[in-house]
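Ticket #4471: structure output looks truncated?

Reporter: J.K.
Steps to reproduce: submitted the chain below (282 residues) through the standard prediction queue, then opened the result file.
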Amino acid sequence: MLFDVQTKNLAAAAERTKRMQFVTGVTAPIHRYHPAIIAQAFASLDILYPGRIGLGLGTGESMNETPLGFDWPRREARLKRVIEAAQIISKLWYTTTNNDNNGNDIKKTSNYANEEEDGFVYFNGEYFLIRNAKLYSRPTSHHIPIFMAAAGPESAKASAKYSDGLITFLKAKESQKILDVFDRTIKKDDKGDSKQKIAEYKVSYSNNYEHTFNSSKFWRATLLKDSFNTSICDPRKLEQKAKQQVPDQELKENIEITTSIEDCIKSIEEYFKVGITKVYNT
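Returned output as attached by the reporter:
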């Protein structure tokens, strides 16, 4: 999903609700979207809907980056970009400033180190550089949660160290290994045990089973082996490859295809049994 569509959809949905919380699943700060722009957008959303907005970060897909003329980085490089992005966004949101949004002198404390004066931030990383950047409209909330997508051990470790929790698209039993890595990393780094573990739960529902199954085919390409690391950027080629390598039975085993929402309860409970704390539907 394109970033501007994500933020517009979040704003539209939040405007029509009162207490519902929203998290992107996920936004990719690889090439197209600079972390500072993401920080500015989500700070604005938090001002409008304080305490209801969260940011999910992930390593992205070639399909969204390569068509714009960018090279598709290797997995390790993309993960480092996400880590740097999380650091930049946090610094821009929470770096100490001497004035509030109304120009009044204040003394604000923050848990983030290496803070520059007056809210101006400098960051010189391996992939991102910002010079004296500042958000003039700062988040209203004390803390906007950042979550990181994880499907392997390295991304699970990164999410434990640099975010408020992980988001995974793996099914309940498959996610157990990365949840163990996540928990061990938190314990080793003495990060506490309050971090969220969020699962993406794919479900296709309607009263007509055939229609329900046909709708699920949209997700077939995500079931390709190592689908999010492939350098294939043409969605037509991905669709063709998925039709050849992902049979209908595999689709049915990985996506909840149902004509009864009540049938979803048991499979959702499986996530909580392995340690997932929240489940969201796509």
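Triage note (M.O.): checked the attachment and the full token line is present. The domain at 3-203+260-281 is CATH 3.20.20.30 (TIM Barrel).
Status: closed, working as intended.
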